[in-house]
C-alpha cells in the first residue's frame, strides 16, 4: 500500500495549513521532517527541516496509529503556517521521499471506506458536508455522515433476513409436517419494510432539493416589478430593470440562503401576448421554468391570466405597494416594503417541505430502495401461491436484501466509487 500525502486544508493564504499523510510510511516520513522521536499517537510542536538540514517551518505534528485514524492506517498531520511557499516547501520534501506520493482526490476517504471506517452513504454525507453552504444542507449531511442511513438499512436487512429464513425453514423441511404457517409473519415483516422504504424513497426528492437548492420563480405581467424585486431580494443588481415592458427575456438565476435553506430565485420574462419573436421565446422559457419550479411568487392580483399553472402553496402578492393607498399585503421592490414578509412566506412553505423528508438523500438511494420495494412486492405476490413457490419468494427477498446492501456499499462498491470520489477535492 502506498503512503499518500496532500494538503488537507484549502489552497491559499491562511493562518494554518494542514498537510495529511496516510499509509505505512506516514510516521517515518513525519519523523524524517521532525527530527525523529514522534510518539505513535500524540501531538508535538516541532521544527520541520529539509534533508539538507535547512529549516522549513515550525509546526504541530499529530500522529495517529492504525486502525485508530480517519483512514484506518497510520496517519500524520502537519499543521504549519498557511503560506503558499511554506506548504509547497513541505510538499516538495515529501514528494522527494521514497514510497510517498501525492494523494488523488478523495483518496483518504476512499481508504477510510476500504478499511471499514465509514460506509458508502457516510462517504456521500462527507462529500455533502464539505459542499454544504446552508444550515439545512449542513444538518442533512450530518445525519448521513453519522451513519443514520446505515442504521436504517441494517434494521430492514435484519427483518428481511428473518423473513427469508422463515421461508427457507419451510423449504428445508418440505417433506415433513410444518406445524405453523409462516406467511403471516413473512407478510408482516416485508410489509413493514416496504412501507418504510416507500416513505424514504418519496423523501429523497425533498432531500435532493436541500442539496441542490429549491427553485422559486417570480412570475407576472411585464413591468410588474419582477426584476426590481429580484434585485431587492438578492441585495444586488442581478437583473436589468427599466420602464420598458419586456425588458427581461432570459431567465436570471440568483442563488441565495433564505433562512437557512438553499434557494435559487428565478426572474422571468413578463407574460403577455406579443408579436415580438425574441420576447415570445423568453415568455415560453418563463412558463416552462415557472411550471418546473418548486414554488412560484405571482406578482399580480390575477394569476389566472398568465398561463402558468398555479399550485396550492404558491404565493401571490400585489406589486408596487408604494403606489397604492395604504395597500395591505402588497410588496414594493423599490421601497423594500413587504420584502421581509415575502421572505418569511417563502421560507415557511419551503421549510415545511424540508422537514417532511427522511434520511435518504440521493437518487442512488432512491433507486436502491425502489428496487428493493419491487422485489418485496414480487415476493408477496408469489407467496399467495403456497409453499411450492416459497423458494421463488425467498429469492426475491434475497434480491431486496442485496439492493439494501448496495445502499451502504456492502456490494457493488467498485462501480460506484469512481463516480462518488470524482466529486471530492484533493486532501479529503
Ligand atoms: N413605484 C414603484 N416602481 C417600481 C416598483 N418595482 C418596479 N418599479 C418600476 O417599474 C418598472 C418596471 O420594473 P421591472 O423590475 O423592470 O419590471 P419587470 O416586471 O421585471 O418587467 P419586465 O422584465 O419587462 O417584464 C421600472 O421602471 C421600475 O423602476 C415598485 O415597487 N414601486
Ligand atoms: K420592465
Ligand atoms: Mg424584468
Describe this protein with a few key phrases:
single chain, 428 residues, alpha/beta, Gyrase A, domain 2, Four Helix Bundle (Hemerythrin (Met), subunit A), Rossmann fold, 3 domains, 6-stranded mixed beta sheet, 5-stranded mixed beta sheet, 11 strands, 46% helix, flat, binds guanosine-5'-triphosphate, binds potassium ion, binds magnesium ion, potassium, GTP-binding
Describe the fold and architecture:
The chain has helices spanning 26-34, 84-96, 107-114, 120-131, 135-145, 148-172, 183-212, 226-234, 277-292, 339-354, 363-383, 390-408, 413-421; strands spanning 3-7, 14-22, 42-49, 55-64, 75-82, 100-102, 214-219, 252-258, 261-267, 295-299, 315-317. A 6-stranded mixed β-sheet has the order 3-4-5-2-1-6. A 5-stranded mixed β-sheet has the order 8-9-7-10-11, with helices on both faces. The protein contains 13 helices and 11 strands. The model has no long low-confidence stretch (mean pLDDT 91). The longest helix is centred in the middle third of the chain and has 30 residues, at 183-212. The radius of gyration is 29 Å and the shape is flat. A hairpin with a 2-residue loop joins strand 8 and strand 9. Helices cover 46% and strands 17% of the residues. With 428 residues, it is α/β, with parallel strands linked by helices. The protein folds into 3 domains: 3-114, Gyrase A, domain 2; 135-209 and 360-421, tRNA modification GTPase MnmE domain 2 (Four Helix Bundle (Hemerythrin (Met), subunit A), Up-down Bundle), CATH 1.20.120.430; 215-354, Rossmann fold (3-Layer(aba) Sandwich). Helix 4 (120-131) runs antiparallel to helix 5 (135-145), helix 6 runs antiparallel to helix 7 (183-212) and helix 11 packs antiparallel against helix 12 (390-408). The site of guanosine-5'-triphosphate (GTP) has 23 residues, from helix 8. Homodimer. Heterotetramer of two MnmE and two MnmG subunits. Mg(2+) binds at residues 227, 248. Belongs to the TRAFAC class TrmE-Era-EngA-EngB-Septin-like GTPase superfamily. TrmE GTPase family. GTP binds at residues 223-228, 242-248, 267-270. Pfam families: MMR_HSR1, MnmE_helical, TrmE_N.
Amino acid at each position: 500500500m502506498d503512503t499518500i500525502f496532500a494538503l488537507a486544508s484549502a489552497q491559499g493564504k491562511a493562518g494554518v495549513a494542514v498537510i495529511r499523510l496516510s499509509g505505512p510510511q506516514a510516521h517515518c516520513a513525519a519523523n524524517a521532517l521532525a527530527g525523529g522521536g514522534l510518539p505513535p499517537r500524540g501531538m508535538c510542536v516541532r521544527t520541520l527541516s529539509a534533508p539538507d538540514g535547512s529549516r522549513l517551518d515550525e509546526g504541530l505534528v499529530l500522529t495517529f496509529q492504525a486502525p485508530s485514524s480517519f483512514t484506518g492506517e497510520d496517519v500524520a498531520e502537519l499543521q504549519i503556517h498557511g503560506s503558499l511557499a511554506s506548504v509547497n516547501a513541505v510538499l516538495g520534501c515529501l514528494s522527494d521521499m521514497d514510497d510517498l506520493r501525492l494523494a488523488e482526490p478523495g483518496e483518504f476517504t476512499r481508504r477510510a471506506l476500504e478499511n471499514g471506517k465509514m460506509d458508502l452513504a457516510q462517504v456521500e454525507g462527507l462529500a455533502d458536508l464539505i459542499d454544504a453552504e446552508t444550515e439545512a444542507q449542513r444538518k442533512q449531511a450530518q445525519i448521513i455522515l453519522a451513519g443514520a442511513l446505515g442504521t436504517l438499512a441494517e434494521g430492514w436487512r435484519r427483518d428481511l433476513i428473518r423473513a427469508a429464513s422463515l421461508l427457507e425453514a419451510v423449504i428445508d423441511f418440505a417433506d415433513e409436517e410444518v406445524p405453523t404457517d409462516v406467511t403471516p409473519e413473512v407478510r408482516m415483516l416485508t410489509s413493514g419494510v416496504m412501507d418504510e422504504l416507500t416513505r424514504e424513497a418519496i423523501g429523497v426528492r425533498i432531500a435532493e432539493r436541500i442539496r441542490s437548492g429549491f427553485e422559486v420563480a417570480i412570475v407576472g405581467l411585464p413591468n410588474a416589478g419582477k426584476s426590481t424585486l429580484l434585485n431587492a431580494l438578492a441585495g444586488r443588481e442581478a437583473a436589468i430593470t427599466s420602464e420598458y415592458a419586456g425588458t427581461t427575456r432570459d431567465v436570471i438565476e440568483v442563488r441565495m440562503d433564505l433562512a437557512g435553506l438553499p434557494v435559487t430565485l428565478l426572474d422571468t420574462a413578463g407574460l403577455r401576448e406579443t408579436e415580438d419573436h425574441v420576447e415570445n421565446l423568453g415568455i415560453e422559457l418563463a412558463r416552462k421554468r415557472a411550471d418546473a419550479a418548486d414554488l412560484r411568487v405571482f406578482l399580480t392580483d390575477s394569476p389566472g391570466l398568465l398561463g402558468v399553472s398555479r399550485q396550492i402553496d404558491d404565493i401571490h402578492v400585489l406589486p408596487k405597494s408604494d403606489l397604492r393607498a395604504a395597500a395591505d399585503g402588497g410588496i414594493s421592490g423599490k421601497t423594500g416594503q413587504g420584502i421581509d414578509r415575502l421572505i418569511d412566506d417563502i421560507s415557511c412553505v419551503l421549510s415545511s417541505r424540508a422537514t417532511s423528508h427522511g434520511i435518504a438523500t440521493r437518487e442512488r438511494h432512491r433507486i436502491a430502495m425502489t428496487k428493493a420495494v419491487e422485489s418485496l412486492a414480487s415476493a408477496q405476490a408469489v407467496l399467495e401461491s403456497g409453499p411450492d413457490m416459497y423458494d421463488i419468494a425467498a429469492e426475491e427477498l434475497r434480491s431486496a436484501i442485496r439492493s439494501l446492501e448496495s445502499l451502504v456499499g456492502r456490494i457493488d462498491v467498485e462501480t460506484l466509487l469512481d463516480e462518488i470520489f470524482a466529486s471530492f477535492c484533493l486532501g479529503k
